Input
Amino acid sequence: MSYIKVNDLCLGYEGKEVINGISFEVNKGDYFCIVGENGSGKSTLMKALLGLITPISGEVIFGEGLTKKDVGYLPQQTDIQKDFPATSWEIVLSGRQGHLGLRPFYSKNDKAVALENMKKMEALQFKNRCFRELSGGQKQRVLLARALSATEKILLMDEPVSGLDPKVTDEMYNIISELNKSGITIIMISHDIAAAEKYASHILHVKGGSGNVISNN
Output
């Protein structure tokens, strides 16, 4: 069974359709890109996958034992997030919140997972620095370490290279590709069709409120 199966999904706000007729499957190990013009419904679809909005019709089914707490999320950065007054370590560690249960404090294991992911993202050197003092690329490494601290099964990313310079953009794409090769399933929103064609195993092109999936193997 697939990790995520979307059946004839119709999404919108206050009863007004934004996107409709969407069906696809994401299997373990896929690198799945969602591309399309601004306003085509990409972010609305991402919200549905995260369970943040209720479909008008259709369904999103999680399989292979996957639950919402197994999903790591890298959102598109907002001005508020960019200026968040916390250390990089605090932000990465917060990725473990879904694993706390009834515990009020992070465990040794939570801290070990967060530390390991900072090392993996080469973000350990700015562990104690304030997040808002970091460069755009450094912030994305911290946020990616946070997403990985939530889970190492599947990552959902919304425009992870937005606002980054070309060199840092290439670095981020390489990092994401290596994560995928290590076994992590990727679902990524992107306006960069060329990059999607280069890296993705499958591409969903959202256009005119609907979309179709192209295998890119």
Q: What stands out?
A: The two ends are 20 Å apart (CA to CA).
